[in-house]
Specification:
Keywords: Heme, Hydrogen peroxide, Iron, Metal-binding, Oxidoreductase, Peroxidase. One of its GO terms (cellular component) is cytosol. Belongs to the catalase family. HPII subfamily. InterPro entries: Catalase, Catalase_AS, Catalase_clade2, Catalase_clade2_helical, Catalase_core, Catalase_haem_BS, Catalase_immune_responsive, Catalase_large_C. It catalyses: 2 H2O2 = O2 + 2 H2O. This protein is α+β, with helices and mostly antiparallel strands. The chain has a domain of 138 residues: Rossmann fold, CATH 3.40.50.880. The protein has 17 helices and 20 strands. Strands 2, 3, 4, 5, 6, 7, 8, 9, 10 and 11 form a 10-stranded antiparallel beta sheet that branches. Strands 17-14-13-18-19-20 form a 6-stranded parallel beta sheet, with helices on both faces. A hairpin with a 2-residue loop joins β4 and β5. α4 crosses α12. It is globular. The protein starts with a helix and ends in a 9-residue tail after the last helix.
Length: 676
């Protein structure tokens, strides 16, 4: 459809909607659709907010039985071990004794796509952890980005409606590069900070194993004396935080749309267990208003340089699921699944999630008894007066199912705080019932600029390219212009080249006066290791057997995973009779599926091997990956003019080569490489 034709249709739709006012499904005129009803501007969301509950309930039940968001997911079992007791801050039992291990179940996911979508979409990733503690299940339901698009849960259905495929043609799948999403962004500018993250490398992670996780919201720790602290949670991957490049992501979706789940499955099966350290940022209640941002605002992070992350434990994923449907698909997370010592704040996005997550399970898992499914069942006993319902698995005995009672000795009975009963933190709440947002939530651009200031040169170029790609797919010139003008408030260095790339007017004014940066936000400052990195070894008959074996042994000793790629499956034979099994052909093992390339060749390789190798090298080179070459491979790299480029290792001394190549693999990418 031409842009003019689409604009004519949009004009027609606008004319049909002209002068119409928003109502509830019962026909009641709505006075406010931005904010949930609160007890004061910074107070908790009230249960009587019928408009919020109607809107959210409808959204929660729009898809049956697939999750509306986070439909595409993969999960694994593991255990969490504490480094030091957190008794000073919280009475949560699983955070008291370093000698005790807590079973966990973790589900990773994309947000926008359906269950059948590719895993390398540009998207936020879910990172949800269920701790099976002795006090009940605790769910830390987060993302790989520490902030979110919106500040109030009232806007969540709107966000997802805008992000999902457009309803008139259900296009595009698992992508934000379309009109409705960017129209939402331009007209809901609280999304600015999250959009910066979504356009960054964080939105195309290399692996679930190399992806940070964040609780997003501000929670409370409460100790056994009743003293509270504000807390944000972090998962820090032991392998560092790494990504792919956009061209690579698009190709991987075609070559292997299951790339992330396969990576996780294979790592666990091979004993390379993914590990993440749990960190907590902790703020004393007396310091709530000390910062230049509102600590309850879910579109804001707490810079690690201002509020250090205290590393308190480690999670290891060491067992794959036995059945994806029974475990990964049926697991039910909820930020309201807490244990004594962990409590909530008045973050208005969190407040809405406390309603929504139970509500959405009713359709997806068939009723109120989803907690009895094996993957959701707590490891500790549970007793209450709930009975019946669809899919009830517990067979309850006796005539009594109410409290208070005398016929059963008034059991089950509540527990006191001292006995381990959950008692909500007694925060003082006062204020008029209002649909409003605190003035302190209205700065939408400072932290978006903070993020931009914190990026390396390469990361900034990737963000510019991401905006240019996404907005280049938008058909409405008005929306394109609105977005460019909006992000001029973040950085003119960003907005002007994007405007030029998509052919709209460059912004005339903007620019933030924020000069602060946070090095912790750049992936360039993350841990870099060769461990578990996949290395494609391009090998043919007649290769230098003993010398290549020396290199492969060095790679394995450093934790890298070399896999042999050749013309056909079977075996290749070295000049010394050494026989090596082939793992992939050039047809099944493309360069985008590997972290590094080791080019060897062989005396008896064909012209086709040469051509396929040249393509392999060129693609890996353009993706800034480490490339090594010895023997014939060294000659090919020298002949191509690539041998002197950064991250390209060639050497006749096998020991020197292996050492240098391992260092190059650990570096991940070489962004200063010149690509012509």
């Amino acid at each position: 459809m031409s842009k003019n034709k689409k604009n004519e249709q949009l004009d027609q739709f606008r004319a049909e909607d002209k002068d119409k006012k928003m109502t509830t499904n019962q026909g009641l005129n709505v006075s406010e659709d931005e904010f949930s009803l609160k007890a004061g501007e910074r107070g908790p969301t009230l249960m009587e907010d019928f408009h919020f509950r109607e809107k959210m309930t409808h959204f929660d039940h729009e898809r049956i039985p697939e999750r509306i968001v986070h439909a595409r997911g993969y999960a694994a079992h593991g255990e969490f071990e504490l480094y030091e007791s957190m008794k000073e801050y919280t009475k949560a039992g699983f955070l008291q004794d370093p000698a005790k291990k807590t079973p966990v179940f973790v589900r990773f996911s994309t947000v926008a796509g359906s269950r059948g979508s590719g895993e390398l979409a540009r998207d936020a990733r879910g990172f949800a952890t269920k701790f099976y503690t002795e006090e009940g299940n605790y769910d830390l339901v987060g993302n790989n980005i520490p902030v979110f698009f919106i500040q109030d849960a009232m806007k969540f259905p709107d966000l997802v409606h805008a992000l999902k495929p457009e309803p008139h043609n259900e296009i595009p799948q698992a992508a934000s590069a379309h009109d409705t999403f960017w129209d939402f962004v331009a007209n809901n500018q609280e999304a600015a900070h999250m959009v910066m993250w979504a356009m960054s490398d964080r939105a195309i992670p290399r692996s679930f194993r190399m992806m940070e996780g964040f609780g997003v919201h501000t929670f409370r720790f409460v100790n056994d004396q009743g003293k509270a602290h504000f807390v944000k949670f972090h998962w820090k991957p032991m392998l560092g935080t790494h990504s792919v490049v956009w061209d690579e992501a698009q190709k991987i979706n075609g070559k292997n749309p299951d790339f992330h789940r396969a990576d996780m499955f294979e790592a666990i099966e091979s004993g390379n267990y993914p590990e993440y350290e749990l960190g907590a940022q902790i703020i004393d209640e007396s310091d709530e208003f000390k910062f230049d941002f509102d600590i309850l605002d879910p579109t804001k992070l707490w810079p690690e340089e201002d509020v250090p992350v205290k590393i308190i434990g480690k999670m290891t994923l060491n067992r794959n699921v036995d059945n994806v449907f029974a475990e990964t698909e049926q697991v039910a997370f909820h930020p309201g699944h807490v244990v004594p010592g962990i409590d909530f704040t008045n973050d208005p996005l969190l407040q809405g999630r406390l309603f929504s997550y139970t509500d959405t399970q009713l359709s997806r898992l068939g009723g109120p008894n989803f907690h009895e499914l094996p993957i959701n069942r707590p490891v500790c006993p549970f007793h209450n007066n709930q009975r019946d319902g669809i899919a009830r698995q517990t067979i309850n005995q006796g005539q009594v199912s109410y409290h208070n009672n005398s016929l059963a000795g008034n059991t089950p009975a509540p527990s006191s705080w001292e006995e381990g009963g959950y008692v909500h933190y007694q925060e003082k709440v006062e204020g008029r019932k209002v649909r409003a947002r605190s003035e302190s939530f209205k700065d939408h651009f400072s932290q978006a600029t903070l993020f931009w200031n914190s990026m390396s040169d390469a990361e900034r170029e990737h963000i510019k390219a991401a905006f240019s790609f996404e907005l280049g797919k938008v058909e409405s010139e008005s929306v394109q212009q609105q977005v460019v003008d909006m992000f001029a408030n973040v950085s003119m260095e960003l907005a002007k080249p994007v405007a030029d790339a998509i052919g709209v007017m460059p912004p005339e004014k903007g620019e933030s006066d924020v000069i602060k940066s946070s090095p912790a936000l750049s992936q360039e400052n993350t841990s870099k290791k060769a461990a578990t990195r996949k290395v494609a070894v391009l090998l043919g008959d007649g290769f230098k057997g003993s010398e290549v074996s020396e290199v492969l042994n060095t790679l394995k000793a450093d934790g890298a995973v070399p896999e042999i790629v050749s013309e056909k499956l079977g075996m290749v034979t070295g000049d010394d009779g050494n026989i090596v099994d082939v793992d992939h052909t050039f047809l099944t093992g493309e360069s985008v599926l590997f972290d590094a390339i080791y080019v060897v060749g062989g005396e008896n390789v064909s012209g086709k091997f040469h051509r396929e190798t040249a393509y392999f090298i060129n693609e890996a080179f353009s993706h800034f990956k480490p490339i090594g070459g010895t023997h014939e491979g060294k000659k090919w790299l020298e002949a191509s003019g690539k041998a002197k480029s950064t991250g390209v290792i060639v050497d006749d001394d096998m020991k020197e080569f292996a050492t240098s190549f391992v260092k190059a693999i650990a570096a991940h990418r070489f962004w200063d490489r010149v690509i012509e």
